Amino acid sequence: MFGRLLKKSEKTAEKGLNELHEYLSNIGISEMRNLLLGQIEKFPINEEMIVEILKKMTYQDDKSGKRFLESSDADSKLKKAFETVITAASSKKMSVEAIELIQKFILMYTDLIDGFDTRNKQIYMHKLTKAIELSINTVEQLTAYINKMAVINR
Fold this sequence. Notes:
154 residues, mainly alpha, 7 helices, 71% helix, 0% strand
């Protein structure tokens, strides 16, 4: 009985992840941010969603070297992308994999972030590094809570 229930929940989770992949393949930065803010009710905010959004934003084609963001993109698109990453980092559904992807985003787009900051007198590099610190703190708090519950349940 439990085996059948477990298989159904695994199939449901896989179906939900496939739907998320399909949805993410057809949306832009604004919709990604709306997903992270919980404004699209079809997909609840979870760790997998954050990771998949960050994977899309850090994707680089091996053959052409084309990235999700390019230096030729409008400043408004860059700003939306930076704000989306900051929104992802401030989520309580943070994971270690998501933190690594945020670090990859910063390393991959350092030239764009610095150029944007210089042109527009902004501090997105500082905001992004603070966002990583916040997300690391969130993961540490979650880990401490899990460890505390494990001790209590012994």
